[in-house]
Amino acid sequence: MSLTAIKMDHSSMPTFPTELFLVIFSSLDARSLIACRQVCQFFLALIDETVALVYTIELARHGHIDHAPTLPSADRLSQLRIHNDAWNKLDGAWSDTIPMHPGHLWELFGNVLAQHSGSGSLIFTQLPSSTRSIERKEWSVPLSGLHIRDFGMDPSQNLLVLIESPRWVRNPNPSYQFHLWCMSSGKAHGLASVPILKHAQKVPDHGMSHTIQISGDHVGVEFHSTHGAKELVVWNWKIGRKELYLTGHEIGSFAFLTEKHVVITMADDTDLRLLVVDFIAESSEQTCVKDVFHCLALRLPDLHPSSTVASLTIRCDPSPAWPNQDDSIPFHVHPDEILYPVALLTAQHNYIMIFIPRRTLLAQFHHFLEGTREVEWPAWGPKGTRILDCLNQANVSPVWACNTFGSRFVAFDVDEEEIDVYDFNQMTLKRELGSGCPSQYGNPNETLWPPVNQEDATMFAVDETVIPSSSLLFQQEVRTSLPFRARAVPTALGTGLFSAMCSQDNIIVVNTSSREYRIFTL
Predict the structure, then answer these.
(1) N or C: more exposed end of the chain, with fewer CB within 10 A?
(2) Which class for 218: exposed (0-12), middle (13-18), buried (19 or more C-beta within 10 A)?
(3) F-box domain: from which residue to which, for each copy (predicted)?
(4) Tens of pLDDT along 151-209?
(5) 416, 408, 413, 415: which is closest to 396 by C-alpha?
(6) For residues 454 and 88, is the Cβ–Cβ distance under 8 A?
(7) pLDDT tens-digit profile of 21-43?
(8) If you classify domain 102-207 with CATH, what class do you get?
(9) For residue 134, how many other CB atoms are within 10 A of its CB?
(10) Residue 43 and residue 22: Cα distance in Å, rounded?
(11) Helix count (H) and strand count (E) of the chain?
């Protein structure tokens, strides 16, 4: 039943108890509640004076969803307002400095930074949160003699995944072993029925590197071989079952998209695409990525013949299943607002990022039902994505890749000694653009200079980004128009080699010159 905004006074309403209206309103979504507010003064007052209903409306306005209903609605509403006000104004403080350990392995997920100590342990630092009144906490987990090549984690599930490489000499064991531990204790994870997952290595490859992603019940590992085809394996880590095993030189990287889909970047000469694979429906046997059946290919713009792909990667932070069972998180960004940045680096030193909200990818799922196997770029990309030049518009490091969280992307501006924060949350952006307040607009085809130290320092980018064919990056002119807003925060950190990363409540500046992490807490 649709709600129509009909103005009426309370006397024309049926004489139902107020409590009955509240029961009805509590089952409505934000859009319906906003429509009800326009029906009559009684509804308007009733909704505006009920904290739980106001919280529902403000969650939607900020592009968030509720997570921990154990907290009183008043507390969650207060935290939501403080959290969004801090990010909108970049009103935070430099709260901490964390030394960079010599182990050369690190991970950032949620609000936890983990590093290999270099001497047989992992050191975890829970970053502070002003909004959630969380103090910094540090602990370590001994590796008990394991020689790990990499690790992944999900603090919301207390899950730590350690990769132990195959042994080919003494006591040979030619399989990768994935140890499923608790982050907090270093003990075997209680929800893992098989504490060690295994994957055979065909031939010795001591230069093998890995990418680990965790989303809910699933863990995915990509194997980057130095002289063979790449591999992608997805397990259900709780029951120890292998769900997907793909191989192919074309595989770039992957990210989880839903509880049963991964999205894979693929590059084959000038042909660039995103391959969405249903890993539950697909065979768990070894399969060439070109032979996958339960999939949908989303074409990217064709590369110019004079350009050569050096890397084509995709990420998402956090995973779509986050925050799982973590009750310390009262609310979080709506999963449809999560960014999937695709980074294209060419041998000719072009470096661009294509920012794709999850909702843009999910909007293509009707093609699965229609039997379509491939969607051309003009049919899905121009209006639902935004391309930015990472060399001219944002200083982005391919190494310190955790530069997005939810709908936000951060970059360090070396010239201005400031952090630029780009927010692609469409719900918030539409609300601000429709507020009638004066706005500043930037040209996305030029270097953006978000103003600092102003009362309203938000810059909006709504014009198209244009990459002309004369750039010799793509074969044809490429236009993208997903709106975003940008703000900047000065750092005064001086000279050095800086990169920026972000988490739910923090911006992390990596200073590789002084080997430290500076934490800006919001």
Answers:
(1) N
(2) buried
(3) 10-58
(4) 999 999 999 999 998 877 776 778 999 999 999 999 999 999 999 999 998 777 777 88
(5) 413
(6) no
(7) 999 999 999 999 999 999 999 99
(8) mainly beta
(9) 15
(10) 10
(11) 9, 36
Residue 3 or residue 364, greater confidence: 364
* Domain-wise residue ranges, the chain: 10-89, 102-207
The whole-angstrom separation of Cα 3 and Cα 38 is: 10
Quick check: 30 and 61 in contact, CB under 8 A? yes
Instruction: Give the containing element (helix H, strand E) for 53.
Output: helix 51-61
8 Cβ contact partners less than 8 Å away, ≥ 6 residues apart: 39, 40
Long-range contacts of 42-45 (CB under 8 A, 24+ apart): 42/9, 42/10, 42/13
Confidence tier at 345 by pLDDT (50, 70, 90): very high
pLDDT digits (tens, 9 = 90+) for 98-110: 999 998 899 999 8
Instruction: Give residue 95's pLDDT.
Output: 84
DSSP state of 300: P
Is residue 404 within 8 Å of residue 315, measured between CB atoms? yes
Distances (CA, A) of 26 to 71, 368, 430: 16, 35, 25
CA 144: distance to chain centroid? 32
Instruction: Take residue 290 and report the two structure tokens written for it.
Output: 């070109």
Distance CA 420, CA 155 (A): 27
What phi and psi values does residue 25 have, to the nearest 5 degrees? -65, -35
| Alpha helices, H only, 62-115 | 73-89
Which long-range contacts does 67-70 make (Cβ < 8 Å, 24+ apart)? Answer: 67/323, 67/327, 67/329, 67/330, 67/331, 67/332, 68/327, 68/328, 68/329, 68/330, 68/331, 70/327
CA gap 291, 246 in Å, rounded: 9
**What is the identity of the amino acid at 221?**
V
Three-state DSSP state, 294: coil
Q: What is the pTM of this model?
A: 0.92
Query: Counting beta carbons within 10 angstroms of the beta carbon of residue 299, is it exposed (0 to 12), middle (13 to 18) or buried (19 or more)?
Result: middle
CA 517 to CA 522: how far, in whole Å? 16
Q: What is the mean pLDDT of residues 454-462?
A: 81
| Dist CA 384 CA 343 (whole Å) | 16
Residue 463 burial (CB count, 10 A): 13
Distance CA 43, CA 36 (A): 6
H or E, element range at 64: strand 64-66
pLDDT computed for residue 14 by the predictor:
60
Q: Would strands 459-461 and 440-441 be described as parallel, antiparallel, or unpaired?
A: parallel
In the block, residue with structure tokens 């975890």: 124
What 3-state class would DSSP assign to 48?
Answer: helix
**What is the architecture of the domain spanning 10-89?**
Up-down Bundle (1.20)
Residue 357 β-bridge partners: 339
